[in-house]
Amino acid sequence: MDRTENIERIFQDLRRVVHALELYSKDVNARFGLTAPQLWALWELERGGGMTLGTLARALQLHPSTVVGVLDRLVDKDLASREPDPQDRRRIRIRILPKGRALLKRAPHPAQGRLVHGLQAMSESQVTSLRRALATLVRVMEAEDLEARFFFSED
Amino acid sequence: MDRTENIERIFQDLRRVVHALELYSKDVNARFGLTAPQLWALWELERGGGMTLGTLARALQLHPSTVVGVLDRLVDKDLASREPDPQDRRRIRIRILPKGRALLKRAPHPAQGRLVHGLQAMSESQVTSLRRALATLVRVMEAEDLEARFFFSED
DNA sequence: TGATGAATATTGGAACACAAATGATTTGAG
DNA sequence: CTCAAATCATTTGTGTTCCAATATTCATCA
């Protein structure tokens, strides 16, 4: 198999992994009434204690405006709360509520599920080589992203 | 590094790869006026000749209802056309238009771009091991997906 | 002090993605 | 041949994601 073909398949497979993750999110939603991003946000809230929207967004690696919507839905379901921060009134204090904590106990580990099962079915050395290869890939892709942003800002 | 940590990092890295692909889609959009899914669809239309919406959806591995919107935008831009199929009037015939063909010549290879550059910066053996690991992962995840669907349909 | 600038959350707009329901058409079984 | 079932594209509704623009609040420094 030549290099081009390798790349072609990797691309297809990445797409399928993403696709499987999305389908998993739908399954979770059907069983627990909240999607994978919502579940993940809840999990970060449990881990991180009281957070602001900004810190939550950074923890999730999402744009703040995205997290607003996710949080809206968590609050609607009484799984989390939004309170004004008395110290800094630009901020809000986000907290997980008892109902959210209870849900976390019976829900799968956030956003993993099927992926974790997939990885667990692989040999230790395969998992390690996947991790190494992905890490390299991410490093190069993110470096390119910086270059691109620099390039465009120079217009 | 233990297994759990490996899995955790793989998950994070996959997320970052997906994120980089999304940002890449925005870049493409800024430069060529169409997003990565649109570009990819156009590329499939060039490859596949006259297609129906269903075959295009299968080629893109997307839900038909998703492709309706993507195609709408391509037609709006005069890059593709929608015609009724005289043989089977349930179907439509989708074709790439000259303007779409011209755009494909100067646009990057669909949906790849940054990912391809990333992979090209890696050694041959790393690319191969990544491909193998991803293929295994996909196989297991999609097998689980089938099981889940079976499980839910048995309710 | 008082104005300017930075930080924070939010809104609005566009695109993508799915499932479920709909309407039109074709196919197939009796 | 006829009517029920399957197929095909689409619409509707929900959710995720980004960016750009906005309002509010805080911090800095002249």
Describe the structure.
The structure is a homodimer of 155-residue chains. Chain A has 155 residues and is mainly α. Chain A folds into two domains: 3-121, Arc Repressor Mutant, subunit A; 122-155. Mean pLDDT of chain A is 80; it is low at 148-155. The longest helix of chain A has 30 residues, at 3-32. Chain A has a two-stranded antiparallel sheet with strand order 1-2. The first copy, chain A, has helices at residues 3-32, 36-48, 53-60, 64-76, 98-106, 114-120, 124-153; strands at residues 80-84, 92-96. The first copy, chain A, binds a DNA duplex (30 and 30 nucleotides) through helix 1 and helix 4.
Short description:
With 155 residues, chain A is mainly α.
Keywords:
DNA-binding; 7 helices; mainly alpha; homodimer; 2 domains; 155 residues; Arc Repressor Mutant, subunit A; disordered C terminus
What are the secondary-structure elements of chain A, in order, as H or E?
HHHHEEHHH
- Helix tally of chain A equals 7
- Text of the CATH class of the largest domain in chain A: Mainly Alpha
**CATH fold call of the largest domain in chain A:** Arc Repressor Mutant, subunit A
Q: Order of strands in the sheet with the most strands of chain A?
A: 1-2
CATH 2nd-level architecture of the largest domain in chain A:
Orthogonal Bundle
Task: Work out the radius of gyration of chain A.
Answer: 19 Å
Number of domains of chain A: 2
Separation of the first and last Cα atoms of chain A: 40 Å
Oligomeric organization of the protein chains = homodimer
Shape of chain A: elongated
